[in-house]
Design goal:
The chain is mostly helical. The chain is 62% helix and 0% strand. The chain has a single domain, classed as Cytochrome Bc1 Complex, Chain D, domain 2.
Length: 105
């Protein structure tokens, strides 16, 4: 196989693995709603923030929310308030929270 074909095969395999891992993360929006009380104070019960300095979560893509929440939990994203709140969220609940906010208009 020449280098170009190898690169194409690698890209296809990598893309396929990404699709499989993202589709496997689908959370339960109903369960997420019951777990989102910690978020309501700043992000609102409807996912619309109470301040212009706080992002709206309603309608964000689930994959993005899972990544962002995970990054706050791991410390890759820095925000002391978010870190303290997300620290109380179980790893298994992140997908549910993301599904809930993604389901909102």
């Amino acid at each position: 196989m020449n280098k170009t074909v190898q690169r194409i095969v690698f890209a296809v395999v990598l893309a396929s693995a990404s699709v499989v891992s993202f589709s496997a993360m689908a959370g339960d929006a109903a369960a997420g709603k019951s777990k989102a009380a910690l978020c309501f104070g700043c992000h609102g019960a409807d996912g619309i923030s109470t301040s212009p300095n706080i992002p709206n979560l309603a309608g964000q893509k689930e994959v993005y929310l899972v990544k962002a929440i995970g990054d706050y939990k791991s410390g890759a994203r820095k925000n002391p308030l978010m870190a303290s709140i997300i620290g109380m969220v179980a790893d298994g609940d992140i997908e549910d929270l993301a599904a809930f906010y993604a389901s909102l208009k």
